[in-house]
Amino acid sequence: MITTAIFDFDGTLADTNQLIINSFKHLYNNFCMECDEEYIMSTFGEPLLTTMNRDFGNHNIEDVLTCYRDYQVNRFNEEVYLYDTVTETLKYLKEKGIKTAIVTSRMKKSTEDALKNFKINSYFDIVISADDTINHKPHKEPLLKAINELNSNPSETYYIGDSKFDMECAINAKAIPVLVGWQSNSKELAEKYNIKYILDKMWSLTKLI
Q: What is the CATH number of domain 4-15+80-207?
């Protein structure tokens, strides 16, 4: 019996892909570095600071973060949107008494601001962000922290995500991985991790509950 549904945010609930790609292109250009879009996409799902420390370690990270965030300030509301049937699905889960949470590699404030912006913050019991754990996805710590705080059990928990970091995190935590099927590499990830449950749209999750 499934009692809990935990969601990644970027690429799962909301389409932030192009904004993130454009933000990194802006960074690479600003700091006079070459940009590889395929590489940028491969980092989706890992904490922002992890990527920045690796790729911009020779620069002041606070300056890099400020550049990244300033670029997004006036673009988030215009370029980011929820995927089809996300709100309806979250409403359905709450009505069914399913415990819900966010486990994301985003920073806490940006996650909470995004949830409020889309008016879906009330659907989540807790939010676990990159600020809340020492280890990050694909490590099991963030997901287990959410599961424990919800008084749930991994075997009764779906973790819904779009990246290799999400699938590995679910597997490492012994939760049930659910892959969204609307990313370009979804088929490849499903085969690589032998994912049983793949969503064609978010509402399909209601059929699994």
A: 3.40.50.1000
- Tell me what percent of the residues of the chain surpass a pLDDT of 90: 75
Q: Which CATH fold topology does 17-78 show?
A: DNA polymerase; domain 1 (1.10.150)
Helix (H) or strand (E) holding 6: strand 4-7
List the chain domain ranges. Answer: 4-15+80-207, 17-78
Q: Is 36 a catalytic residue?
A: no
Question: pLDDT per residue over 125-166, tens digit each?
Answer: 999 999 999 999 999 999 999 999 999 999 999 999 999 999
Q: How far apart are CA 147 and CA 170, in angstroms?
A: 11
DSSP string, 110-127: HHHHHHHHTT-GGG-SEE
Per-residue model confidence as pLDDT tens digits over 74-111? 788 888 999 999 999 999 999 999 999 999 999 899 89
The active-site residue out of 8, 10, 162, 166 is 8
Give residues with Cβ within 8 angstroms of 84, minimum separation 6.
201, 202, 203
Task: Report the half-sphere exposure of 58 (CA within 13 A, side-chain side).
Answer: 5
